[in-house]
Amino acid sequence: MYFIFRGMDVTSKLIDLALVEDIGTGDVTTEYFVPEGKEVTAYVMSKGEGIVAGVAVAMEVFERVDRNLKVEALLTDGAEISYGEYIIKITGSARSILTAERTVLNFLQQLSGEATKTSTFVKLTEGTKAKILDTRKTTPGWRYLEKMAVRAGGGTNHRMGLYDRAMVKDNHLVAEGGLPAIQDAINKLAEEKPHVQIELEADTLEQVESFLKLDGVDYILLDNMTNEQMRQALEMRGDAEKPLMEASGGVTLETVRGIAKTGVDFISVGALTHSAIALDISMEFYEKESSKS
Question: Is 70 marked active-site?
Fold first, then answer.
């Protein structure tokens, strides 16, 4: 079975799903308690400090609910925001804006939280060459959006899925024939799928030493190694540009700086997406046009 990934198609379907699960057969609150024809101006605003992400998605939600709404982005993804800053301005039907509100905030809060967490890790590695990577530990269906949020926070995307990079873990499973068998597999993959990069996971320095003897390896994943072990792995590589070295496992805000200073090229952090705290974002309504912008 082959799967062709189209990020925007997935996002469009995700918006549809989110609206269906929230609106269902209709928004009974606005239908019965908000006068038909009532026009308002509303602002999506931050109630915390961080990095905004998901603006285009939020705007699409408003437009999907009511194409007659006037929706204006006041900030773009990647912008630093502080308390009280306005992100999006919406003018039009109060019913429509209220119906879209929760879905808009759900997207913005989660994605901005992930961008903010990424930015915190990135800032801690400033002055080193290490780039912060995300992982596949994402919310099912949200991967395209969450990786977009990581980029907004200054991070770098790892592979999108199982199809765009070979990551060989638990290498004893493929090493029955030793290094020659692994080299044969690398050669076959490179010939049949030349666009796919190859990464091998190493749990020990002995594995690193072995993998450095192979041709065609793009990355070596240094799994749960100490900082000293990672420095030794980099010394083994010497002046060669490849394979690039990626640190993984046990990466926290407290440890990331020390890991980066070992000289690794990348540091993968699952917490960017699976443990981010949603940024506090809300919506304010005005019956008449506001002077805020």
Answer: no
